[in-house]
Design a protein that fits this description.
This protein is of the alpha+beta class. It is built from eleven helices and seven strands. α3 packs antiparallel against α4 and α3 runs parallel beside α5 (122-140).
């Protein structure tokens, strides 16, 4: 997993928590309140002879309730937000077509259109509102095709007021989104610093515990079997003692680059200690992880650290284990750590599974 992928994972983790909750609660509130109002209006008009208006309101209320019920059952599915937008398209133009009670249906258009703006995502909302208003304008200027009758002065004032309202609403939403984006950007940078090792620029233990493992457990199909490789540079203390800690830091950066050359885009290389690293291979069996670890070991051994008159060979030891499900991640990490100890005990510069 490269640096941009880590940033994207952090960004998604940050955005999902706040934005998803906001949109979901907004959908729930608007659906229950709006569905109840439409059902109440259908009841008020029942028996008044306008069966088309009553039927439209009742159908809209029923679909709204069904949509919000399904959204409770499948809270991670965005489809229900767009269905809510389509319900608004139908309800708005049903009111325009029938005229509502005594041709007062136009008064209810403003809150309905605002629902589209705040429930549907910003750019799709522009399309939804444009379609809704476009159909309404076509009906208003072809009144011979509809049941309602609107005086020309009512139509012109309604359209002017609606366009002004839509412009102000979208401007407000746009500024809100822009300010939120700036705040997210600042928070993302803080998260990146907190979740990244400053020397190697690799993810750290905090990133693994707070972001990666949580995401893996939320979506196990995309990650398991998950293989873990614990890596430790052999005799690193000797490098620091011989050349100094500045050179030791350069060795860590060199070693990091060698590991990253051998992993896949979906893999995670993290620094978990001084000279200790953890590599995570999503969707990799134990045998596949052993082959990848061996590839890294060979690459490290074949590329000594060279700087000025320093030409120091580097080797590393590897412990490999695999978690088949999200319930045994900790056990797999402990097993990989134990295997690393075996590799160290048996002579270093080897992969033990």
């Amino acid at each position: 997993m490269d640096h941009s992928s880590v940033r994207q994972l952090l960004r998604n983790s940050q955005q999902d928590e706040a934005e998803t909750k906001r949109r979901r609660l907004t959908l729930y509130f608007i659906s229950y309140v709006g569905g109840t109002i439409m059902a109440f209006m259908a009841w008020l008009n029942y028996g008044g002879g306008d069966t088309l208006l009553v039927g439209s309101l009742a159908a809209s209320a029923a679909v709204v309730y069904a949509n919000v019920a399904l959204s409770h059952a499948f809270p991670r599915n965005d489809t229900f937000y767009y269905i809510a937008g389509l319900i608004v398209v139908f309800t708005v133009n049903a009111l325009v077509y029938t005229g509502g009670l005594n041709n007062t249906g136009l008064y209810f258009i403003f809150p309905l259109i605002f629902i589209q703006i705040i429930v549907v995502r910003f750019k799709p909302a522009i399309v939804y509102v444009s379609v809704t208003l476009g159909i309404a304008i076509a009906l208003l200027f072809n009144q011979e095709l509809i049941v309602a009758e609107y005086p020309p002065e009512h139509v012109s004032r309604f359209l002017i007021a609606t366009l002004c309202f839509i412009c102000v609403a979208f401007i407000g939403e746009n500024f809100w989104h822009q300010s939120r984006k700036e705040m997210l950007k600042e928070n993302l940078e803080r998260m990146r610093q907190a979740n990244t090792d400053p020397l190697t620029k690799l993810p750290n233990r905090r990133f693994l515990d707070a972001v990666f493992f949580d995401r893996a457990m939320e979506d196990p199909v995309s990650y398991f079997p998950l293989s873990a490789v614990v890596v430790d540079i052999d005799h690193f203390k000797k490098i620091n003692d011989t050349y100094g800690h500045d050179v030791g830091d350069d060795v860590l950066i060199h070693f990091t680059q060698l590991m990253k050359e051998c992993v896949r885009n979906t893999d995670v290389v993290a620094r978990t200690g001084g000279e200790e690293f953890l590599i995570l291979f999503p969707h990799a069996t134990l045998s596949q992880a052993v082959k990848l670890a061996e590839k890294i070991r060979e690459n490290v051994e074949a590329n000594p650290f060279i700087q000025g008159d320093i030409n120091h060979p580097i080797t590393a030891s590897f412990g490999v284990a695999t978690a088949l499900t999200d319930s045994n991640i900790n056990a797999a990490l402990k097993q990989a750590d134990d295997k690393l100890y075996v590799a160290k005990k048996n002579g270093r510069n080897r992969v033990v599974e």
